[in-house]
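Hi F.,

I've been meaning to write this up properly since the lab meeting, where we talked about keeping a consistent format for the predictions we share between groups. The idea is simple: the sequence comes first, exactly as it goes in, then the structure tokens exactly as they come out, then a line or two of notes. No screenshots and no reformatting. I'm using this chain as the first example so we have something concrete to point to.
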Amino acid sequence: MSQLIKNGAAAADSWKTLEIGEGETPETVALPAGDILFPLAVWQARQAELAGRERLGLLLQPDDKVEDVAADVARFALIAVNFPKFVDGRGYSTAALLRQRYGYTGELRAVGNVLHDQLFFMKRVGFDSHALTDGKNLAYAIEQGFAPFSDGYQGATDQPQPYFRRRA
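Output, unedited:
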């Protein structure tokens, strides 16, 4: 079970991810109750069934297109973006698009292979919660992961003004 960092502090996680098992399809998988992260394919196949839920979560994979959910982002209490490998940076673009282009204001979570080295940059593009990879030191990640640099030069989701504009 991963360790959750939310808004820079350790937090409890009530969300579970729906897994599509062998022999199941997005159309046939059972939809459990509670705080569930649904894969994009399940959301697309069963929007009508899921729309009535009080809290709805979405799990995006690197190959998923943000444009496919652009009209629905306000429905989700949580959108999780999967980082299957440390070297796969597509999730950064997904987060920036969700925040900047599509105006998503809910919780945006990085899941998968999330290491303390990435936390500063993930925060810059709009992630506000991070499911740290199993076996990593949570206290160290919180203490060191968000402040490897004193400030960012470029504008980003967390600070739209570049450094030279803020100095003036």
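Notes:
The chain has one domain: 3-167.
DSSP finds six helices and eight strands in the chain.

If this format works for you, I'll send the rest the same way.

G.
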